[in-house]
Fold this protein.
Amino acid sequence: MASQPVSPLLLRLPGVCALVGLSKSQIYRLIRAGEFPTGVSLGANSVAWPVEQVQAWVTDKISSSSR
């Protein structure tokens, strides 16, 4: 049986906040500073973040803190 390809998952802002442990204000500050991935527009008033990009940001923060 062939495995199905996994489609990218998108996180809405509450999920991003829960995953990284930051408030929405801090996430948007980091985006403006170019230090956090920008969201993907889903429509006029909807934004989501690819889970892979958010997880990569978390991994980078963890590895940079151990230096």
